[in-house]
Amino acid sequence: MLITSILFIIGLIGLWKSSDWLVDSGTAIAKYYQVSPLIIGLSLVAFGTSAPELMINIMASMNQQPEIVWGNVLGSNIANTTLILGLTAIITPLCFKPLRQTAILVAHTLPPLGLAVCIMINPTLGPSAGCALLLLLTGYLVLLYRNNQLPTDSEPGPPQLGPSLGLFAFACIALPSFSYLVLTQATALALFMGIPELIISLFFVSLGSSLPELVTCINAAIKRNADMVLGNIIGSNVFNIACVLGISCSIQPIAWQSKLSLEGALVLGLPIALWLFSRYATQMNRWAGSGLAFLYIAYIAYYLA
Fold this sequence. Notes:
The protein is an all-alpha fold.
């Protein structure tokens, strides 16, 4: 257990540092191309931080482990929209103004709605459902391209792009690698302490694969880069369902697990609630962030009760 604990600590340190590189290099790339950090967060950074979910789900699909596939995606999206969004809003208020000028918040609700329709048509998702989800991802990327507007207060970008691209690519590799190290060691510690397998699947696997989003968003919040925070969370949620789940059921048909009905309702309802909240509030303050974080704690308490 001593070696496991040491590796766990090393993974946490590496995870934080690689997220720091991801935020800094992503911001530099945005400045070089005169692209809003929101767009970078919604695309490049979101895809980079969703890499652990993709790696875990591909392995779970090939091993025919549908509970891991569903628990990872649904649990990660719940953690993103409650715990991670809440904690970052406590650190710095998150302004909805850039999102209100686009259809991004509406696009955020479409993948879970599309997933719900696919499940109602056929509870076992196969290649056809995977193609439908990947088509939603294509529409999302087209939407990002159409909303790629120059920021009005942009600063001159770095004179050279090469170092930023290299650091970004390295961070995208290091981030999921350290995340996998933390995930495996945390799971080993949980098994040693006798924590049930269902709890490990829903929380340790999903929250472990969401560590890149967590540390990247906290890092961006500390640097007062609210656009990167919102972009990362929304983009990661879209990628998790449209890309990760779409690829997973294309590899191997996966049956819907009825025991995860609460998770399905949360994944469907939270993006809709966030969109409605943004229509009546200009920003998410610390009180709203605290409420979201408390919601995740209540969600955990429900399973522990």
